[in-house]
Write a structure and sequence with these properties.
single chain, alpha+beta, four-stranded antiparallel β-sheet, about 45% helix
Length: about 280
Amino acid sequence: MGDPLDRLLSQFALRAGVFYTGNICGLHDFKRDEQRGHLHVVRRGPVNLVNAGKPDVFIERPSLIYLPRPERHRLVANEREGADVVCATVLTGAGGRNPISDSLPDLVLIEIDGCPGLEPILELMFSEAFGAGSGRQAVLDRLCEVLTIRMLRHCIERGQVSGGALAGMADPRLAKALDAMHQSPSQPWDLLSLATLTGMSRARFAEHFRRVTGATPADYLSSWRLMLAQRLLSKGVPAKAAALDVGYGSSSALHRAFLRKFGQSPSEWLKQRAMAD
């Protein structure tokens, strides 16, 4: 059946793209990104992370920085010596909000020597990043994807997930209900049928689900269906077929749910996504 992360990644493919490798001096700005997370690997610092509306974070040791929902931010390095960094974007599924990024805090900061599993990946990444071998970009992108998955595993094992799907799937009882919703979103799930899967009463299931994931079962199911619909629509599946596949009776029902959740219709969302790409 696989573990929680496997099950989510099977639904929301992860793609990384390294866009900068090398030394930075002074200020290096990054724009707000509604579609992708930003991953910064600091090989040699120090650097100061200036994150909009939040306290600055001073980083002296080799570290991994991940912002799943990045606002405008910047890395500030010493003007003379600078800092060696690798910067990448991480796209999950169709982009934007998704169960994986929604389960993480606004900032994930991991010191590399505090997570031994990262070291061999980073050695390969740094060798490629600061070398000139053929196929360098493709290798860097694939290594960055592996690095991101190892980072997510670290967050789950250390309890650094902040609710959402990853927290729910790590709970042995809730995982049964979440698996059912994930695998069969078109089924008419209600509180009783989901609670029965977990062996809990309706009241206890509803309370436990909300405490662990931060959402009601109905809200979670709605969000899951809509995110699956986004994935299908982005692949060119017609709205009517996408609606039926994820549990809405018609394209108009999907349209109404899109408006409630995202404030825009499916066609408007597709246009916005095309412009962002």
